[in-house]
């Protein structure tokens, strides 16, 4: 099926929505990249990176804390590789590939599939600061926690992806950031990295948590990831709109080919595993919308949308958390992006 880029009218509406959220103070600025599996791109920008960066406008090369997009840009593809290489079994308990533990570990019995589909029943609240002063390793502390629910019901849970990151590091004998960096280099994502990164005019600052305190700038916004040194399975990655576009193009191109591990993993992940709400399901990591649309959001104000059947994608990068609740204030842009990419 030929790949058709979004229309000029689509781009005009997306530009207007991006302008609106900037003008309304939802974010200092932002970038939207639309494109196709064959590498055709169009970049829309508005506003400034942040007042700290002067009048510099955001661009394809601006580095953003992508927050929970870490789940689908780092952890999910690495799990897929490990499954293809026979290192992981999706339906095996996560404790099977973590360092040995003694005694009861109810949270370690949940499977990789349940974690990816957010149906694990693990505790939804994650406060790694509560583990301070203990002498047990983090994987054991997490696995010894009781389940909060019977596995099967959808509930978005970060701690499962923390366990996935720890499991990937153990089974490969390499830190998660090293594994991810190797994969991103293969894909041509030269700017994508786990933090921290140096402050500078090309890096988007995020939140100021305390009046008078320095703004978070170059360090991960997520507090649990910060306690893990900025490298975690659920958050911690910094990327650019250009690299997210490259990533989307890589996934879409693989999907359109027969008999390749990456495309098989994308296809497997587009199978609904649990309902989220009417019209939305959870696949493996990704949210699934009608029309074979897969997408995911990041708390800081980022989103990535894939339409594998039409070969299109939309990447959104903002630092909307700079001005407060990003999810609420940039909702109109996200809703339009989903509607636009869902239109054949």
UniProtKB/TrEMBL annotation:
Keyword Hydrolase: yes
PANTHER family reported for this sequence: BETA-LACTAMASE-RELATED, BETA-LACTAMASE-RELATED DOMAIN-CONTAINING PROTEIN
A Pfam family of this chain: Beta-lactamase
GO molecular function, one term: hydrolase activity
InterPro entries hit by this protein: Beta-lactam-related (IPR001466), Beta-lactam/transpept-like (IPR012338), Diverse_Enzym_Activities (IPR050789)
Coiled coil: none
Keywords, sorted A to Z: Hydrolase
Name the UniProt record assigns to this protein: Peptidase S12 family protein
Start and end residues of each Beta-lactamase-related domain: 19-338
Protein's UniProt keywords contain DNA damage: no
Top-level taxon: Bacteria
């Amino acid at each position: 099926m030929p790949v058709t880029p979004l229309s000029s009218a689509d781009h005009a509406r997306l530009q207007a929505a991006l302008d609106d959220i900037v003008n309304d103070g939802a974010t200092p600025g932002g970038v939207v990249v639309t494109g196709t599996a064959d590498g055709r791109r169009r970049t829309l920008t508005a506003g400034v990176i942040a007042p700290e960066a002067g009048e510099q406008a955001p661009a394809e090369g601006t580095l953003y804390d992508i927050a929970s997009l870490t789940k689908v840009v780092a952890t999910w593809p690495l799990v897929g590789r490990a499954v293809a290489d026979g290192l992981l079994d999706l339906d095996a308990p996560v404790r099977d590939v973590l360092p040995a533990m003694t005694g009861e570990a109810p949270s370690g019995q949940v499977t990789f599939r349940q974690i990816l589909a957010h149906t694990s029943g693990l505790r939804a609240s994650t406060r790694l600061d509560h583990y301070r002063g203990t002498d047990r390793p983090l994987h054991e502390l997490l696995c010894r926690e009781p389940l909060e629910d019977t596995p099967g019901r959808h509930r978005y849970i970060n701690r499962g992806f923390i366990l996935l990151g720890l499991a990937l590091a153990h089974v490969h004998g390499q830190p998660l950031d090293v594994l991810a960096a190797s994969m991103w280099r293969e894909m041509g994502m030269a700017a994508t990295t786990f933090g921290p990164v140096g402050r500078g005019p090309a890096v988007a600052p995020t939140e100021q948590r305390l009046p008078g305190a320095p703004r978070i700038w170059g360090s991960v916004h997520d507090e649990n990831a910060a306690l893990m040194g900025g490298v975690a399975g659920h958050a911690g990655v910094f990327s650019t709109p250009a690299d997210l576009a490259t990533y989307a193009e890589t996934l879409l191109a693989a999907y359109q080919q027969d008999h390749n591990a990456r495309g098989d993993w994308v296809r497997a992940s587009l199978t609904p595993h649990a309902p989220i709400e009417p019209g939305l399901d959870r696949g493996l990591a990704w949210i699934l919308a009608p029309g074979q649309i897969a997408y995911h959001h990041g708390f800081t104000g980022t989103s990535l949308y894939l339409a594998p059947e039409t070969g299109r994608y939309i990447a959104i990068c903002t630092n909307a958390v700079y001005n407060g609740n990003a999810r609420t204030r940039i909702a109109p842009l996200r809703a339009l992006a989903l509607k636009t990419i869902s239109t054949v």
